[in-house]
Amino acid sequence: MPTTSLPNPFSKNAPRFDPTKPGELQSFLENMEDLMTEAGITDSDDMMEKLVKYVNHQTKREWINLSKYKQGNWDEFKG
Question: pTM (2 decimals)?
Fold first, then answer.
């Protein structure tokens, strides 16, 4: 049962990924996974769909064109 909901992607408390700091990507993905799990979102396709709402438009376009994103497998994508 979900204990919380995801923050609005536009809120000041929403997790953010800064593509100029690629070293922070793994931490961002782990934080997002934790938040989604707490919100009861565990389906890989749903997780992938929610994830790209928390990145800028350019990053979203790049990610949704990756084969691992298109496969809809969260574990493969976060690799």
Answer: 0.90
Q: Can you tell me whether residue 74 is helix, strand or coil?
A: helix
Which residue, among 61, 63, 54, has the nearest Cα to 10 in the 3D structure?
54
75 and 68 in contact (C-beta within 8 Å)? no
Query: How many Å apart are CA 74 and CA 43, to the nearest integer?
Result: 8
pLDDT in tens, 33-78: 999 999 999 999 999 999 999 999 999 999 999 999 999 999 999 9
> DSSP assignment of 7-46, as one string?
PPTTSTTS----TT-GGGHHHHHHHHHHHHHHTT---HHH
Q: Are the CB atoms for 53 and 9 separated by under 8 Å? A: yes
